[in-house]
Amino acid sequence: MSLPTSNQKLISWVAEVIAMCTPDRVEWCDGSQAEYDRCYSLLVALGAGVPLKKRPHSLLFSSDPSDVARVEGRTYIACRNKEDAGPTNIWAPPHELKATMKKLYDGCMKGRTMYVIPFSMGPVGSFMSKIGIEITDSAYVVMNMHIMTRVGTRVLEALGSEGHFIPCLHSVGAPLQPGQKDVLWPCAPMDKKYISHFPEEDLIWSYGSGYGGNALLGKKCLALRIASTMARREGWLAEHMLIMRMVSPEGKKFHICAAFPSACGKTNLAMITPTVPGWRVETVGDDIAWMRVADDGSLRAINPEAGFFGVAPGTNYDSNPMAMECLKENCIFTNCVLTDDGDVWWEGKDNRIDHGIDWKGRDWTPKSGEKGAHPNARFTAPARQCPVICPDWEDPNGVPVDIIVFGGRRGQLVPLVYESLGWDHGVFMGSQASSETTAANIGSVGQLRRDPMAMTPFCGYNMGDYWSHWLKVGDTVKQQPKIYYTNWFRKDARGKFMWPGFGENSRVLKWMCQRKTGEAGIQQTAIGGLPRASDLDLGTLKIDSAVMQELLAVDVPGWKREVPELRKFYSKFGAKFPRRLEQQLDALDARLQQATAKL
After folding, report:
1. Signed CA dihedral, 541, 545, 546, 551: sign only
2. What 3-state DSSP class applies to 470?
3. What is the C-alpha separation between 306 and 129, in angstroms, rounded?
């Protein structure tokens, strides 16, 4: 068999996997449309993918009920020292985990095709990009990787005979015996699912799940968990952040990187349609940002992905019209409702339906008593289809970062927006981020958890070292971005959202941009700089002045109660907690004491 690469390390690894997993066939992916179409036809013939009459070249899949989201309880960081993984990760000794998984991998691809997917995270050939090789036995994964990454022969050409790659091994964990009929969504039981990362080897092993976050190994596994450890070694940042360009009426460009937990509005914000007259937004990326310090001391960012893997429920022409325009063709939908006229539907979509087939394959009506689409139902869409995609979204040198935003979902306490006092204080703000849990991860929904920089599930090493790395990188950035914290989710006494959100968030973004140019005002408080209502361009927005006053108020007694909770959280990191952040916490405590004395 003629191989499409001369990279001996790659050739040896593929041979090793073939010997261990014993597939019936091996295909090296070339990234062509013909290859994508073959997978499309194969999955349709199997009955796994349902063609959508209303959306050309698009398929709907329904997963096994046990395989609907990231499985954080089965996600491991395997490094020599447990302390290096830290308290936010599940640690496993590398040799023990490999021994367990090798037994599972033994013969796991029997009866199946093994696909070798060369992929680039970031523009092919960019000094900011990384090359991975995913081996999988899932045609569904191949199709999704075609959309989410740059796949194929050109990647192997960029890799060359000596280039470095991140090996990513994936199996659905469902070997087929001769004559055995395949199921529509093959996967292993929950206790056999493993999403494993070996950061000291830049290695990823995944077994038993076909769901995106567990199976598309270029996404969270490589682009965040492994990339974060590579970034620490190499002096850059791999972050769970959208990247957007906001353009003023005068044509001034501002680039914003923003971190929010999954299913908390990142995609909506990345593609926002501003309500502020004359301002517009261009999307660079909706989920992940890789940031490096350039030779001139500026911080620059690329989106390593090539597509959007977004949460469908709640997406509509009010919340995210640009996303809806992305979804008209060439898309993959997972765990949505199939309508009677051959379209997809989910809760929160613009139209109502009287009947459909739900994500479990059952007849569904609005009176069925449960939701038709899974709360974490997804769409996979090419970024190039976004009507507001930034012309520079694939610039190999990235875009300059002017503003960094952290945020979370808090019903109380945290104001609409506040500005950091500097880089260290901004890192402190990000480190204290917290949000209510969502359907994007398996577990309890609605519980408050600390989610520093929205990286709790994705940081591949000790979070204390991660904060130290942020501080170290900041010391090298000469043109430092302004840093903000936002909370679009404040609720009143009746439990209703106080801020309208969606396109109206552009009013807050405009204030950030004008703070960067010195055009907008600010008032300093114990927690940081807040705008006055008059500093925000509220235009024709109908919002009560008392509501705005509450959104922009600092609850000093509430923040005083927050300080010991933060100390308790930070104590988990022991000596790894950076002294510079401890000083920021002490300074916050002191400012709150001073503010209390003035009450």
Report:
1. positive
2. helix
3. 12
* pLDDT reading at 448 higher than 90: no
For tokens 């990247």, the residue is: 243
| SS3 of residue 267 by DSSP | helix
DSSP 281-332: EEEEESS-EEEEE-TTSBEEEE---SEEEEE-TT-STTT-HHHHHHTTSS-E
70-74, 216-220, 511-515: which has the minimum mean pLDDT?
70-74
Active-site positions?
264
Nearest C-alpha neighbor of 107 from the set 197, 215, 209, 17:
17
- Whether the pLDDT of residue 161 is over 80: the answer is yes
Please state, in angstroms and rounded to a whole number, the distance separating the CA atoms of residues 599 and 588.
17
Q: How far apart are CA 33 and CA 147, in angstroms?
A: 11
- Rg of the chain over CA atoms, in angstroms? 24
Closest CA to 509 of 524, 498, 520: 520
206 three-class SS:
strand
Q: Where would I find the H helices in 525-555?
A: 545-551
| pLDDT of the residue at 358 | 98
- pLDDT at residue number 593: 97
Q: What are phi and psi of 556, to 5 degrees?
A: -60, -50
pLDDT at 441: 53
Question: By C-alpha distance, which of 188, 210, 183 is closest to 46?
Answer: 183
Phi first, then psi, for residue 298 (nearest 5°) are -85, 160
Mean predicted confidence (pLDDT) in 140-161:
98
**Distance between CA atoms of 423 and 421, rounded to whole angstroms?**
7
C-alpha dist (Å) from residue 107 to 16, 46, 59, 94: 12, 22, 30, 21
Residues 6+ apart with CB under 8 A from 486: 258, 405, 406, 407, 416, 417, 505, 508
Q: Give the amino acid at 235.
A: G
CA distance 404 to 454: 13
Contact 463, 225 (CB under 8 A): no
Q: How many residues does the chain have?
A: 599
Q: What is the pLDDT of residues 387-429, one digit of tens each?
A: 999 999 999 999 999 999 999 999 999 999 999 999 999 999 9
φ/ψ of 471, rounded to 5, equals -65, -40
- How far apart CA 587 and CA 422 sit, in angstroms, is 13
Give this prediction's pTM: 0.96
Band (435; pLDDT cuts 50, 70, 90): confident
Q: Which residues contact 520 (CB under 8 A, 6 or more apart)?
A: 511, 514, 531, 535
Residue-level pLDDT at 444: 60
Residues 6 or more apart from 309 whose CB is under 8 A from it?
144, 148, 212, 216, 219, 287, 378, 379, 380
- Distances, alpha carbon 324 to alpha carbons 219, 438, 525, in Å: 22, 22, 40
Burial class (CB in 10 A: 0-12, 13-18, 19+), 269: buried
Per-residue pLDDT of 517-537, as tens digits, reads 999 999 999 999 999 999 999
